[in-house]
Design a protein that fits this description.
Blueprint lengths: L3 E2 L1 H5 L7 E5 L11 H7 L6 E2 L19 H10 L7 E5 L7 H10 L5 E4 L2 H7 L25 E2 L1 H10 L3 E4 L3 H5 L14 E2 L15 H9 L9 E4 L5 H11 L5 E4 L2 H5 L12
Parallel strand pairs: 1-5, 2-3, 2-4, 4-5, 6-10, 7-8, 7-9, 9-10
Helix pairs in contact: 4-9
């Protein structure tokens, strides 16, 4: 299974016993939308609701941290997902939240994993069936997995300011990255480059081709032969950049999960503004 699958591909496999479909929609707080209510109102037939907004480690000092291994096993068990299942993630969110779900599941070893290209919006625009039926699945025991994909900490990012072992790429919009007036941001991590996550998508909401994604990074000054750490405001759209890097087969990457919510609120840390 490819990492990115089309609506046609998924439609041809609806009802397959070996495919799990997860709705990974999460909205920004000011969007005025309720992901669970929207799921109940209409979802891809057979889909299960991941509840990505609650899929965090509230015991962590990091804002909106990725779930622990224990929390991951518990959530996957509650959803009745067997290890080794083929999993397709989709969303109906402006922030392309299925990429965050992809990062979490990939981090904990789910290797048969794909994102639905274009998400629910494309599925709906094509007139494909939606369902209000909530399918119940028997819970199953899941062992705690080992984390395989790296998450960088604030201290590691601070130490990197001098060593420059990794290139930091920020997924936020340009105004917030530059700290423009009325953006609500002081700027960015010193030395970071800016690739707003929306630049990885075509007008119809599907991901751009691999060469075009590569170009988006390179034209910003990123050397794709060197390691990359992605950042954003809360670790959400940073995962979109990570997924884009996955599509161009770059594997020396990591996510700074605390992102600007952590860095920007620490007065001891340096900030940089402007382009």
């Amino acid at each position: 299974m490819d990492k990115l699958v089309s609506t046609e591909w998924l439609a041809a496999r609806l009802g397959s016993d070996d495919i799990v479909i997860l709705d990974a929609t999460q909205h920004l707080p000011d969007a005025g939308r309720d992901a669970r209510a929207e799921f109940e109102d209409g979802h891809i037939p057979g889909a299960r609701f991941l509840d990505l907004a609650s899929f965090t480690d509230e015991q962590s000092e990091v804002p909106k941290a990725v779930p622990s291994a224990e929390q991951f096993a518990e959530r996957m068990g509650e959803l009745g997902i067997a290890p080794g299942s083929r999993i397709v993630l989709y969303d109906d969110s402006a922030i392309k939240s299925s990429a965050r779900a992809w990062f979490i599941l990939d981090r904990y070893g789910e290797d048969k994993l794909a994102v639905l290209d274009g998400g629910l919006s494309k599925w709906r625009s094509e007139g494909r069936d939606l369902s209000q039926r909530i399918v119940e699945h028997a819970p199953r025991h899941r062992a705690e997995p080992e984390a395989t994909r790296e998450v960088r900490t604030k201290d590691e990012i601070r130490d990197n300011l001098d060593s420059q072992d990794w290139q930091v790429v920020d997924a936020r919009d340009t105004a917030r990255f530059e700290g423009q007036e009325d953006s609500g941001s002081e700027g960015h991590i010193p030395g970071a480059r800016n690739v707003p996550f929306v630049r990885l998508f075509s007008e119809d909401g599907t991901y751009k081709s691999a060469p075009d994604i590569r170009s988006e990074f390179e034209q910003t000054g990123i050397d794709l032969d060197k390691p990359v750490v992605t950042s954003c405001n809360s670790g959400m759209t940073a995962a979109v950049l990570l997924f884009g890097l996955e599509l161009i087969e770059k594997d020396d990457v990591a996510l700074y999960d605390g992102s600007w919510m952590e860095w920007g609120h620490d007065p001891s840390l340096p900030k940089e503004s402007g382009a």
